[in-house]
Amino acid sequence: MAGDGNTPLKTSDDHPDDLVLQEYALGQSEAEQAAEVGQHIAQCARCRARVEEWRQFGERLAADLRRDLDRVTPAEPLEFSRIARQWRVPRRRTSPATIWRLSFPALLLGLLLWMAFWLVSGRRTAALRALDLLEDYDGPPVVLAAVTDRGLVVVRLVPGEVRLEQRLSYVTHPAGLQLAPDGEWLAFTQDRILHILGTRAGGAHLEIPLAGLAGWAWSPDGSALAYTDGAGQLWLFERHTLSSRLLVPASESAWGKLAWNPDGTQIAYVTARPLPPVAGGATHQSLWRVDVLSGLRVELARRLPEAGALLSAEAWLASGEGLLAWETSPADGENLATLYQVDVSGHLLTALDGKVPVQGENLSWPLGPQARALVWDGRNLVIWHLQEQKKQPLAGQLAWPQTVDWSADGAWLAAVLAGAPPGQGVILFALEASTLRAISLPADATERAIFCGGPEHLFVIRQPQGRETAEVWLVSLVERAAPRRLMSSVALPEAGPYNGWRWDDVFALRVLD
Amino acid sequence: MSQNPHVNPAMDDLPLIQRAIEGDERAARQLFEKYQLRTFRLALGLLGDEADAEEVAQDALTYALLNLRLYRPDLSSFSTWLHTITVCRARDKRRRKFLPSISLTQWLGLGNQIRDHTPGPEAVVIRNETEDRLLWALDQLSPKLREAIVLRFYTDCSYKEMSEIMGCSLNTVRSRLRLAVDRLRELLGEEQVPWLATETLR
User: Fold this and answer.
1) Which domains does chain B have, with CATH numbers?
2) Do A87 and B115 lie within an 8 Å CB cutoff?
3) Which of A54, A321, A464, A513 could form a disulfide with A445 if both were Cys (CB 3.0 to 4.6 A apart)?
């Protein structure tokens, strides 16, 4: 025995074992064993040949492996930035076990108190009380999702009935709340997780991890949710299977917002190389469409890698023959977008006059039905009628709208004006008559955002004086009924440029047919 | 590339590691830059798929740099520790995919990212007879035998380092390597190792 004592040096016919010869050939023998094998092979041609065999084999294998692996570099550079982000998080100095041991008595006491409170008041009742929901609702049937000081709530309102359907207390800082067209599902992200939540009480809740910046959009019939995952892939989540299928692979670098065509057969998306925010400047971007059933992809337009410019698909024209996209650029401070009309058949990208402000990944002034858009032409606010290719000036000298919404038929536009006195921030603009109508509300709160609720109602978000939360008000446009407060305790979103707010991070509303 | 993955990282990593543990992000970045390619290539050798290797390398480096306090310089070199993490992550990746190793030869043939040898036509013929078969044979090995081959012949690990990285005894390393090489030879056939004819010499 030699070496570590476990390796037999000699076989029965006095030759070293192959394992020993192999170790020797590969330079891994202990000194004593190496000397013994060296002496042996000096005398033995058979073992010398075996050692030489191992040595040559090893060298050849090593050379082949090195030659082939050493010439490969990652297709996408590995990112130190991912590590750096976590690096900057303050280190936890106490072990989880210690924290648990110390905090257990307090947690137990808290739990008992909470259970007592639960038994006395009832969870739902308490939540409803905190939201101060209107009990005799008489507006249009709607589903709304809102971030409140009690987490994310989903409320269904039908005349005579108000139901708190869902409450997720841990959802405190979501982004991009989007209700499906039928109001049955809600999609949003929080901490790089895409949540897909059934809005009925006890509904399904799916969580999909994302790699980075993502975008998502419900199909026109609400049966599917298309989403980009931040890793360059475009997926389709289908409600009937509750699962996702890949439409565009990572090698295509799909990212950001998505736009479905009116019949739900095509999705417009943008590819960018490298993917933002890694780009840090120049990106090669293209606008594509993908056929949902076949997966066939067609490039519609390509942009030169202008530093910092970011392209987004926004909406398709009703005919399905064109779509609208927008692009921000550093020249406009990255908060004003240029609109483009894209000819799907001709692959033409035509810039439209005027700019639209941007909040995060969305236009502050969303496009209206029948391809109508409110834009700033540098001096005035004008409405583009894109199908008719004509511009309509907005009557009067309006202040800058901080949020805008369109009626379902596109006949009128509702806006909240920046800097207006409390109670006087809401105006309506009727396109056909080209007239403005001011909506008066109580002067105890400032109007912040507006959502059209069918042909006869408005939902106005207002911030009471001196409060850090907002209220939702219901305003009837046809009756002489006074505006009514619908709910309280809605969180205020992050404020953006041009007096704008990222309302889709805290509030979503869908009028039900 | 500028880095040589076969150079055993010297003890000069220790000052960098110490600074990184104390919170110096630049030191962590230097370690990242130094080890990113060799980690990626080790993962590639273990998995045979470039995308998987990128993911595994990123995971391994992230874990290692964020958990430097767990590294024990008295027990192993930093590269051995990092190799251990990479091997574990590669095993996890393989397990998650429920797939055997993807054929390195196939992959080379499809991607052309690696095998851009650009030899002359005669050399191609000769190489087809030798190297391609060798790589094909490597792909036939089980993951554990493949680990042994890659760690020994690509990263140039000693048997002792291999036993630490693979989490097994020295004797297991010996036998796995012996099995791996025997299997390779069996797959390649006798003509690949003509010196076996010396069996009868004495």
Assistant:
1) 1-101 (1.10.1740.10)
2) no
3) A464
